[in-house]
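User: structure tokens for this one?
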Amino acid sequence: MMNNPFTFGNPIRDPARFIGRTEDIRQITNRLLSSARESTSVVGERRIGKTSLLKYLNNPEVAESFGLSRDDFCLVYIDFQGLNDITPQRFWQRVLRLMARTMDNPDRKQQFKDLSREEYIDFFDLEDLFDEIGDDGTHVVLLLDEFEYVTQNPNFDSDFFGGLRSLAIHYNLSLVPATRRELVELCHSEEIKGSPFFNIFATVILKPFTEEETDELITQYGQAAGISFSEDEREFAKKSGGGYPFFMQMAGHYLVEGKRNGLQGKELFDFARMEFAQQAEPHFSYIWAHASESEKITLVTILALQAEKMKKPKLDISVEKISEIYPRAPRDINSLTKRGSIVAYDKQISLFSSSYDDWIALELTAAPGEEESEASVDAWVREQKDGKVRQSKGALSRTKKKYWPVVGQVFKEFSAEVIGNIAVGMLTNMM
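Assistant:
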């Protein structure tokens, strides 16, 4: 039996399996091919596909197809994940060794190896090296995955970043770092944050796949499995995955597994939904944990509006409508959209995945027997300056106490029916 083509957990290594990101790649490669050989920062939430993108660009045939010929460009991929104790010396040792593997010129290979073995790599030695490589007509591109392990590391001071900036501006070196947040937000000190190093980048923000890209992924991978998905099955994968390549792969994987086990209809969806929920739970938890309290309020406001829309189909879930309930929402919507936690189609805003909707609803809800007492709820409500919070007392008693500041801001604006749909995790009808 053919292996399941939908895989998750590891980045895409086979270029034939890489989907989408056409505009993002165009921006990166156009800057590399410009006369200034400019650098680009890739920003995206965890599991959005940053590593797959860098590895795709690092493939020689792919790079060649975008005009980054091996004769002119030396692309070097480096992953810094988990390297909490790395130093500038180790940084350059690793870079030089990987450059030695990539270069065709045997003399240059040996030169890189020799310098990497030095006890101390001097910045002037690096300048001389890149100057000589430039004489060969070769331009070096460092694809720096998980670069926050460098920017947040106190071993790397302003001198390091100043030197790296100088090499990127004055010599034949371009940088393509990938991080979870924008570079300037990921610094270990105010001094580093103010470094001109961060001014050399344009930023490409990786967002969930477009509708066309999700269709391409489902179709191409389905064909690889010898499966033609029905419209309901395609819709399940889209709503569960929400355009996140990782979650799309996960949803497709369990649809294929269920089909291979002979499941159809409701049994197939129940199987795929249960398996997906178990695998996605820690990743949803991570996304939620890295949202600020204000962003959590905005997310719950969107959920409440989605629940209200069940009774009022013509309701617009727009920035304006969300802001009526929570005035600080526009700023949060901007940051949540950048990170891919919410999406907007035809000016209608929703969370990126219906499964994430359900997970948040259940996360808010206190388990049976763990509800707070009426006296505890009354005491908290009395402490609030906003008298409207009182109307959400019934929902608060069924909500985990740590989330009362979040839900209290939202539930006071909705009917008891809508509050009930959120508070007890009853969002499954919205799928």
